[in-house]
Amino acid sequence: MDIIEILLLALIQGLTEFLPISSSAHLILPSQLFGWVDQGQGFDVAVHVGSLLAVCLYFRKEIGDMLVAWYATLTPNKEDDAALTDEQRFNGRLAWWIILASIPLGLFGYLSADFIEENLRSALVIAITTIVFGLLLGFVDIKAKQNVALEAFSFKGAMIIGLAQMLAIIPGTSRSGITMTAGLMLGLSRENAARLSFLMSIPAISMAGGYLTLKLITGTEVVDWMSMGIGSVLAFISAYACIHYFLILVNKIGMMPFVIYRLILGVGLLAFVW
Fold first, then answer.
1. Whole-angstrom distance, CA of residue 273 vs CA of residue 131
2. Looking at residue 254, what DSSP letter applies?
3. Are 52 and 202 spatial neighbours (Cβ–Cβ below 8 Å)?
4. Which residue ranges does UniProt annotate as crossing the membrane (predicted)?
């Protein structure tokens, strides 16, 4: 990989991992459109690590609070439970929701990853999923009431989002896009749907990175440590900036700019295919 490819792919991963436009699609497309050699599993691991570090650093306070509250649920007693605040109880529930809602994605990914890798990583599939799920995001963004507070959310709602997240295995769907769509459909505000989606990305990216790492270790690929290092740093910077500004702007601009982008991209890909 030359430096231009490294810079572009790392920035693409960092920006698109958390925007509702599909990072997997954008990482696949350059090789198909420009004839680039596949970046390899080592580089994919590196940019996933960068994105994971970014979301963990950005939400470090929320993660710390949830871990403490979650640990308290493992050793409950009446005195400790009585001393917990409503916020601490909610943090404990939220931690459990994120853990349990991530299980369907892990199971589906484990069972279907090889099939999808061999059959669905094409420009045509990406074009169709980009358009279909883009239209769904736009419809829900316009029609949903968005009046449910995150504190009033339920385990059932979290599991619905977790089941929807399974679809993100299909290139072009967008993990953040489908989880935000499900969150909006269940009545969350744009900001809360995005915030929950970002928190759910932590186990999702960890599982994806772990799977890629295992394939890298058991494979014969030569590791380009310099490319991996540059890619990881750039993915971290771009992902952190993306999370920060998206949460600031999402209630102001809504989801329509991303819907329009997806439709343009999808139609352009269909034209490229045919």
1. 14
2. -
3. yes
4. 94-113, 119-140, 152-173, 193-214, 226-247, 253-273
Burial pattern 226-253, b for ≥16 Cβ within 10 A else e, equals ebbebbbbbbbebbbebbeebbeebeee
Residue 219: pLDDT above 90?
no
Confidence grade of residue 40 (pLDDT, cut at 50, 70, 90)? low
What's the total number of domains in the chain? Answer: 1
Report how far residue 139's alpha carbon sits from residue 144's, in angstroms, rounded to the nearest whole number. Answer: 8
Kindly report the number of other CB atoms within 10 A of residue 1's CB atom: 19
Could you count the other beta carbons within 10 Å of the beta carbon of residue 100?
A: 13
| E strand or H helix that includes residue 108 | helix 103-119
pLDDT value of position 131: 95
Q: What is the mean pLDDT of residues 55-65?
A: 96
Determine what percent of the chain falls in helix, strand and coil, rounding each to the nearest 5. 80, 0, 20
Given this model, what pLDDT does residue 80 score?
62
Which tokens go with 143? 């029609």
Q: Which residues contact 7 (CB under 8 A, 6 or more apart)?
A: 230, 234
Q: Is the pLDDT of residue 34 over 80?
A: no
Buried/exposed 13-32: b ≥16 CB within 10 Å, e otherwise: bbbbbbbbbbbbbbbbbbeb
Residue 5 has a pLDDT of 84
